Amino acid sequence: MLNAVDLSDKNQGLISHAAMTSKRAKVNAKLSAYDPDPMSLDACKKSDDWEYPRQGNPWKQAIMNEIDNLKKCDVFRIIPLSSVSSRTKIFSIVTGYLTQRTEASTPEHEEVDKRKCRMSHGGRKAI
Question: How many domains in the chain?
Answer without folding.
Answer: 1
